[in-house]
Amino acid sequence: MSFRRFIDLVAASGDLITIDKPVSTTYEIANVAHALEGRPVLFTNIAGYPGWRSCAGPCSDRRYFSMALGVEMTDLMHRMTDAIANPVAPPIVQTAPCQEVIREDVNLFDLPIVLHLPEDGGHYIASNVVIINDPDLGRNMCYHRLLRLDERRFAARIVENRGTYNALQKTDGELPVAICIGVSLGVHLAASMSPPPNVDELGVANALSPTPLVKCITNDLYVPADAEIVLEGRITRQLMSEGPFMDLTETMDTTRMQPVIEIDLVTHRRDPIYHILLPGGLEHKLLMGMPKEPTIFAAVNQVTRCTGVAITPGGTSWLHAVVQIDKQGPDDGKLAIEAAFRGHGSLKHVWIVDSDVDIYDPAQVEWALATRFQADHDLYVYANQPGSSLDPSGIHVPGQKSLTAKMGLDCTIPWGADLHLYRRGDYGHVNLRDYLP
Questions:
Q1: pLDDT value at position 437?
Q2: Is position 247 annotated as part of the catalytic site?
Q3: Which residues contact 242 (CB under 8 A, 6 or more apart)?
Q4: Which of 49, 63, 298, 416 could serve as a FRET partner for 271 with CA atoms 20 to 30 Å apart?
Q5: Residue 150's closest CA among 183, 122, 117, 120?
Q6: Phi-psi region for residue 416, left (φ > 0), alpha (ψ -120 to 50) or beta?
Q7: Which of 61, 120, 200, 247 is catalytic?
């Protein structure tokens, strides 16, 4: 389901909020989107950008992914797991909506790129997925935030020792790149996952939801045919200052010297819709955290029967998880804790609960902590562990892996205990229409 069709879907369901009042790309549009966070918001009147619309919040709730992919919310993790294990090669088309309008005279100031916060280094694109070809591993899709420098250039945050960075090290000269804005929720999920290096993320996207591709005009890369906007260009060897910019933890990331991307061509749909993604917001958190749930699920399933995983927004959707298991033995809680940390290396704190606890309900998780946990033997602390560079409380030394203390809480019913003492009482269901006017 394309980005545009999804907007139609949430409009029909009553979830979409439409703002017709003129809004500025300097702070105002971000502030309004933040005030309405959790709902898709369509801005139809962007000051200084006639003919453009912007949408914020399409990825801000698990329910929207469920709607876009046509699955129950509880099945999202299993759908992602199946797509990684069974990618489907996308079909190729010759003509595509994303190339309805071709702009050879590139001017990045023609795009409604947002200045989010007064602390930001400038106007940033945060919603884009980037497609490159690795000389050895083939196509790679990921995210890089982009700081607009001038009419044709961005400074891109390219994290060291990951896909795009590694491809650059193998490339003499410049690396062709395609930057896609306004893509389907399936493409967003696939770009957020970390499949093995030989797995094509666009094949994962096509397994999640049909994703036809079209060839770029100035290079040999292929992009989602129904993207709203595509910027074709090259990652150069030039470096420029990039940052500061708010990261996942809602704290400001530092300034670094980063590669410059030069844009050669802009293509887009007629009446394009620009996707605004708020840094540190719910979309950022879900797209970072939710794709880690299948990797934790797989790791825990190697040691016990795992029935669910939820990366929690309170833990910035990166540092905290709740793992649901069906215990098979007395040590399964501890084994699940250690496996969860293997499944997601940046995880800092994890709760292990039984299968009768709703992992998406913080009150139920806290109830399990209150009734099934004893700190003197159910708490596990691991000092000086590899952690996340996004955690400001960790130990960070330039050029070295960040370190942190990790904690696991086994909130499961003790093995061999009288289950009747630990079960929650359940009232019967009634139809309130039989009792209320």
A1: 83
A2: yes
A3: 121, 147, 155, 156, 157, 255, 256, 257, 258
A4: 63
A5: 122
A6: left
A7: 247
| The predicted structure's pLDDT at residue 310 | 94
Supply angle C-alpha 427, 410, 291, rounded to 5: 90
Which superfamily does CATH assign the domain made up of 78-269 to? Electron Transport, Fmn-binding Protein; Chain A (2.30.110.10)
Which single residue is written with the structure tokens 């995210």?
143
The reply to whether the predicted model has a pTM over 0.70 is: yes
- Per-run averaged pLDDT (10 residues), the chain, 437 residues: 97 97 98 97 97 97 95 90 94 98 97 96 97 94 97 95 91 96 97 87 97 98 98 97 91 92 98 96 92 93 96 91 97 98 96 96 97 97 92 86 95 94 92 92
